[in-house]
Amino acid sequence: MNKVGIAAYGITPFSKEDKKIENLLMDSVVDLFVKNPKIDKKNIEGVMVSTNNNSKYLGPIVAEMAGIQPKTTISIENLCNSGTNSIVSAYSYIASGLVDMVLVSGAERFDSPGQILDWDNSRGQFKHPIFWASLFTKSYKNHFSVSDEDLAIVSVKNHKQAKSNPNSLSNKTFSVEDVIKSKQITEDLRLLDCSRSCTGSASIVLASEKIMKDITSEPIWISGIGQKTTSAGFTKNNSFHSMESTKEASNTALKMANKEIKDIDVVELHDAFSVCEPMALESMGFSDNGKSMRMIKELHQTDNFKINPRGGLIGTGHPLGATGIAQTIEVVQQLQDRADSRQIDNVTTGLVHNMSAAATSSTVLVLEK
Amino acid sequence: MNKVGIAAYGITPFSKEDKKIENLLMDSVVDLFVKNPKIDKKNIEGVMVSTNNNSKYLGPIVAEMAGIQPKTTISIENLCNSGTNSIVSAYSYIASGLVDMVLVSGAERFDSPGQILDWDNSRGQFKHPIFWASLFTKSYKNHFSVSDEDLAIVSVKNHKQAKSNPNSLSNKTFSVEDVIKSKQITEDLRLLDCSRSCTGSASIVLASEKIMKDITSEPIWISGIGQKTTSAGFTKNNSFHSMESTKEASNTALKMANKEIKDIDVVELHDAFSVCEPMALESMGFSDNGKSMRMIKELHQTDNFKINPRGGLIGTGHPLGATGIAQTIEVVQQLQDRADSRQIDNVTTGLVHNMSAAATSSTVLVLEK
C-alpha cells in the first residue's frame, strides 16, 4: 500500500459567527495556502468537504474558490465524525493510487442541522444528544461509583487546556464547583459538562510518499486507521458505560500501526460530554474500566496535556464537520513540536478518536512522525 | 493495486412516489440481498450512501436497517454524479486494502434539494438546469448547424429504449413531431428534451479480487476510472458545445483501462437533456465534434441499443443520487448478458459517463468482464 501522510494544515478560530458555509470552508483553506507556499494547486487532485450543512456541490465550489481543478470532488457526511471519515476517504484515494494529493476541508455553522438525529426513534421524544449523554452519565456513575464532582474534572481540565489554544471557543477557566453549579440540563448533566455547537473550519492536505518531500520536510504519516459502526439507533448499544465502536476502531487502528496503547504519547478524543472522556479512554484501553478518572485527575494536577491538549470539544467547541480535522491538526502540531504552550514532551506517536451519535460509530487514527 | 469489481446489484422501478429516503434506499438494498443469497452480511465492511437528500447519518441507518455492522459508513454528495463518486470511493477503500467489501446505495426523492445550485450566481436569475441546457442547445445547434428535429432523435431513441426497461419512469414512445410539439420550456428546449427528476433507488456491492469468487461467478471489474472538476460555476466552461470535464475524465479512464474509445461496446451516458448525448459522445471521442447526430440516428434506425440501452436519463428518469449507480448496473447487466430485450451482442467492455451541473464535473468508468 502507498504510504500516505499529512503535508499541511489550516485552521481559524472557532466562534458563534453567522457566516456562509462556503466562506467558512475557505477561511481555513486560505490559512493553509498562506502557511504552505510550496503547495502547487495544480497538483491537488482531490477536494473533499466534510460538513453536515445542507448546501450541495461544496467540493467543486471550494475548488473553484481556491483556484483548483481537481479530478475528484465530493462532500462527505457521517454526523460528528464526518471530519475523520473525510480524512480516511482522502487516505484511500491516495493509497489506492488514483491520486497523489487531496485537500480535505471541514466546516460547520453554529446552527448545523446535524445536531439532532430525527431518525432514531429509539430515543423516544428525547432526541437531543444531551439525553443519551445523560443516560451514559447515570450509567457510568452508578456502575463505577463515580460522582458528579469526579466527572466535573474533565470539564475543568479541558477548559484550562483550551485557554492555551488561540482557536478555541472558550477562554475561561472553571473550578469543580463552577461546573457543579452551572445550569442543570438534565438530572445528571450540567451546562459545563457539554460541548457547544459552534462555527468553525479546519483543512488539511494529504499526500502520497512520492510527492511529500516537495511539500514539507515535516510530514506526519497516518500509520493506523480503525473504524466501526455498530448501529444508528442509540439503544442498540450493548452498554451505556463503554463505547463498543470505539473499542473495535481503536484495536483495528493500533494493529494496523503495529502499536500498543502504551505507545501513544498524545490523544485527541471525542469529549462531546464530560463522561465521554473516561469512557473513550477505557474503551481504547488506556485504563481499566471505571478507573480512568484517576488518570485524568493526575494529568490535570500535574498540568500534563496528554489528553485533549487543544481543550477537547468541551473547551474548544464542536463545529461538527470540522471537529475531526481540528483534532487531527492538534496531533500533527504536537508531533511537529509546534503546539506552543500546549506542547507535550517527546511526542512520537499520537491518536485521534472521533465518534458520532452516542458512539454508534467511531473512527480512530494513529499518526506518527 | 488490488483489483476491484462489482459483485452484486439491486434496483427497483423509478417513479414519482412520495417515500422516506431511508425506506427508498432499503428498496434496492433488499432487492440486492434477495438476488444474492451468497453474500454474508458479516463480511460487508463499508456502507456508502449516495444522495442529495438532507437527512443525516444515512450510512449507519442503512447499515442498521440491513443488519450490517461495517467499519466505514459515509454519505457522499456531488449533485448529479454522486452515484459514480460513491462507486469510486468504494473502489478506493477496497483498492487501498482498508476493506474487502462495500455496499453502495443511492436514492433520491422526486423533490430532491439537489436540483438547483443556488451558489452559482454566474447563472444570474436563471438557476434551474433548463437554462444552462438551453444555452448548450443554442450553442451546439449554431456551431454545428444542427436542428431541433435532429436533436429530438435523442429523446425519441431513448424513450423507445426505456420501454424495454421495466424500471424506467416512462413507458411511452414518441415521434420527432411529438418532441417538437411538446411544451416549449425555453426558446431552445421542449419538455421531451428534458430528463425528469424522480424517486428511485439503486445499490451495488463492490468487492476485492480476493473475496469475489465467494460471492459471484460473474464479476464485472472496474478497469478504468477518470474524474475531472473544472469549476462549480456554469460560465467557467470554456465552451457551451463540448464538455471539457468529460473529455479529461474519459481520457484518464481509458488510459487506466488501457483501452481506446473504439473498444467500448456499450455506453451509459448522462443525457440530462437531448443535447447532452451528442456533446458527451463527441467529448469522449466516439465521433468528431458536431458529427455524432449521424451515429445516433443510425443506431436509432437500426434498433441498436449501444448508447443508453436502459433509456438514458430522459427515458428512465433522473433520481440524482441513484442515477450513476443505475447506469453502472445497466452496463453490468449488458456485460453479464442479462439485459433481456435490451441486450447488445458481444459486449466485453462498457463505459459509464455521469456528470453534474452543466458538466462542470464528470466521472467516467470503464467496466470489463
The helix tally of chain A amounts to 12
Please report which band the strand proportion of chain A falls in: under 5%, 5-15%, 15-25%, 25-35%, 35-45% or over 45%: 15-25%
Unreliable runs of chain A: none
User: What is the approximate shape of chain A?
Assistant: globular
Q: What class, by secondary structure content of chain A?
A: alpha/beta
What string gives the helices and strands of chain A in order?
Answer: EHEHEHEHHHEEEHEHEHHHHEE
Report how far the terminal alpha carbons of chain A are from each other. 18 Å
User: What percentage of residues of chain A falls in helices of 4 or more residues?
Assistant: 25-40%
CATH topology of the domain at 4-114 and 197-212 in chain A: Peroxisomal Thiolase, Chain A, domain 1
Q: What is the CA-atom radius of gyration of chain A, in angstroms?
A: 19 Å
| Biggest beta sheet summary of chain A | 9 strands, mixed
Number of strands of chain A: 11
Q: What oligomeric state best describes the polypeptide chains here? A: homodimer
Could you walk me through the main structural features you see in this protein, from its secondary elements to its overall organization?
2 copies of one chain form a homodimer. By secondary structure, chain A is an alpha/beta fold. Chain A has a domain at 4-114 and 197-212: Peroxisomal Thiolase, Chain A, domain 1 (3-Layer(aba) Sandwich). Chain A has 12 helices and 11 strands. In chain A, the strands form 2 sheets. In chain A, strands 3-2-4-7-1-8-11-10-9 form a 9-stranded mixed beta sheet, with helices on both faces. A two-stranded antiparallel ribbon of chain A has the order 5-6. In chain A, β2, α2 (58-66) and β3 form a beta-alpha-beta unit. In chain A, α3 (82-95) crosses α12. The longest helix of chain A is centred in the middle third of the chain and has 16 residues, at 129-144. The first copy, chain A, is globular and about 55 Å long. The mean pLDDT of chain A is 97. Chains A and B meet through α2, β3, α3 and β8 of A and α2, β3, α3 and β8 of B.
